[in-house]
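Below sits our specimen:

——
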Amino acid sequence: MTAPSQVIPVPPADLPGTLGELRAAGHRPRTVKQELRDSLLARLRSGVERFPGIVGYHDTVLPEVERALLAGHDMVLLGERGQGKTRLIRSLVGLLDEWTPVIAGSVLNEDPLHPLTPASRALVAEAGDDLPVGWLHRSMRYGEKLATPDTSVGDLIGDVDPIRIAQGRTLGDPDTIHFGLVPRTNRGIFAVNELPDLAERIQVALLNVLEERDIQVRGYQLRLPLDLFLVASANPEDYTNRGRIITPLKDRFGAEIRTHYPVDLELELALIRQEAELVAEVPEHVLEVLARFARAVRESPSVDPRSGVSARFAIAAAETVAAAALRRAGLLAAGFAPGAGDAAVRPEAPVARVGDAVPVTSTLRGKVEFESGEEGREIEILGHLLRTATAETFRARLAGLDLSGFTALVDEGRTVETGELVSSAELLRQVGTVPGLAKALDRLGLGDAPSPEQAAAGVEFVLEGLHLTRRLGKDVTDSGRTRYGGRA
C-alpha cells in the first residue's frame, strides 16, 4: 500500500521535461481504469501479491474487487465498522503507475496530450513542444473525503471563487471557478468514506461524475471529461439510521461489495500480529485468547449484531495487554511491588500473561454496543466471554496433557499466588519443579529454553485453565493477588 506522506516524492531526473520529449519517448496516454486493469493483470500473471497488508479477504472480497477493477467499475464497499474498508481502498493506489506526466502547474492534473480547460489548451497551443511537463507520483493521485453532514457541493465539485471575481473577472469566465476535491483528483482515485452520511442533495452532485464523467458548477456551461476511479465505503443502512445512498447513485456504481470480519481464528490472529503495535512480548497463547475473545464478543447474543465488533477491538486488547506487562516490569524494577525479590538484581522483562487481559473488559467496553436489555451488565458479560475464550484456548492447546503435577501443588491446603504485580521469579519459586511443565510450555509455543518471564506466563495460563475447567479453586485477595488452591 502507498501510504500518504507529507514529503512530496522527487521524480527521477531522466524523465521527459517537455511535451516534445514526452512524445519522442513514445508516451501513450491511458485512463486511470486502464492503468488499474493493466497493473492488476501484470500482478495476476506474475504471482506478485496484489493487495499487500490486506488480511482475510483473499478468497472472498478480493476476487470481487479484482473483477470490478478488470471490468472498470466504480465500486462501493459495504460492511460494518472495523472491517478494513478504508485500508483496502487506499491499497488501490499501489496499482497506479509510479509517475504520471501532467501539464506543469495544472490544478486538474491534465495530461499534456489531452488538456481539459480552455486555459490549458491555449497554453499547449502557444508553447507547443516546449510546454513544460511535470510528473505526479501515484501517492499524490489519491483523494479522500469523510462524508460529514456539513460537506457541501463546493467541497466536492467546486464553486465560484469570490477573490477572482473581485479581481475583475466576469462570472462567465471559467477561470473564476475554484474546483473541489473530485476534479482536483482528476486522473486518480477518489474515495468517499461513509457515503450514507452525505446529505442526499449532496449525493446528487456525484451523479454526473459517475455516469457522464463530468461536473457542473453553479450553472456554468462547462464540461470537463474527468478521468476518475470512484470508490466509496458505507455501513449497512439498517445500522446507521442516519442516511442512505440514494437509488440513482447506487445504480451508477458498477459493483457493490460486502466486506466481513475474519472468517476463522487464524486470520484473526494474523490481523492482530500485523496491526498491533506491542510494547512488550505477548506470547502466542495470550494472543489466541484475545482473538477468541474478540470472536466471542462478535457472536454474543448480548451484543448488537448490526454494529459489529471492530477488528480494532482485538488489536487494542493486544496492545493493552502488552502495556500491562510493561507496567508490571517498570513497577517491579522500581521496587514498588511487595515480594519483588530478584527484581532488584535482575530486572523483570515485560512479558504478558493471561491475567493481564482482565482489565481489558473495562477499558474496551466502549468499543462494543450491547443490546438495550443488557445495560449495567457490560463488564460482567465481557468478563464471562473472556473466561470462555481462555478455557477454549486451554483446551485447544493443552488437551490430553497430564497436568496432575499442577493440581498436586495445592494439595494439603497449599496455594499458589500470582497477580498483576507478582514477579516471575516469585511465581516460579512457589511452583518449583513441576512434572509436565516442560511439555506444557512446549505446547504453548514457548520453546525448550523459555525465559523466567515466559515460563511464568505459561504457568499462570495453566493454573487459570485448570481453574476454568473446575480442577482448581481460585480466590482474589484484597491486595489484588490471585490465589489458586484447593479443588473448585
Residues 54 and 368 are 24 Å apart (CA to CA). Residues 1-5, 340-344 have pLDDT under 50 and may be disordered. The radius of gyration is 30 Å. Residues 265-485 form one domain.
